[in-house]
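so my prof wants the structure for this chain in the tokens format not the other one, which i didnt know existed until like an hour ago. anyway here's the sequence
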Amino acid sequence: MIYSLRGKLIHSEPNLAVIECGGVGYSCRVTMTTARQLPKLGEEAMLYTCMSVREDAIELFGFADKAELSCFQQLTSVNGVGPKAAISILSELTPERVALAAASGDFKALTRAPGVGPKLAQRIVLELKDKFGKLMTSDTGFGIGGASGPGVVSAAGNAAEAVNALTVLGFSASEASAVVSKLDSSLPVETLVRDALKMLAKKV
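here's what i got, hopefully its the right format
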């Protein structure tokens, strides 16, 4: 498995970036969000990657940060969601918006992505909300009426929704709670998620 690539950007176009590493050019399918963050041709670029192996093709997908990679992996774990659909969704919505849509049941937000119809969007929300349900009943202390300890936020309000959104991006409930608890819970959920992602990125 190729975890990441760091090298010279030798070619780019919408949804595609080619990074040369050790004399080999690696072609990566990317989201529009990642494409906008790429440097100029000839400069060094770094992408987190995920490889898709099918009978008729082997493709490498590249992402500007771990949150986008985690969201891509969550989306493609849903039955019927392939890499192409996941890239389409993440080209239209940020990882935090995808997570919030799943957490709140807002499947219509996902249909903004080309090629994603209502049925597929509803399936994504249903399967990702199931993961939230498991967290809400787990023994991590994160749950309705559950015990609260140091660094664990209440299950009520914007803070809890932000923690839910972060878990679908691949972070543990305790890790997400510890970061969100340091923020102002009166802020909008999307702002909490964005600020939490910045804090989590600094820890990497």
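also thought this was worth mentioning. The chain has two domains: 4-64, 67-203.
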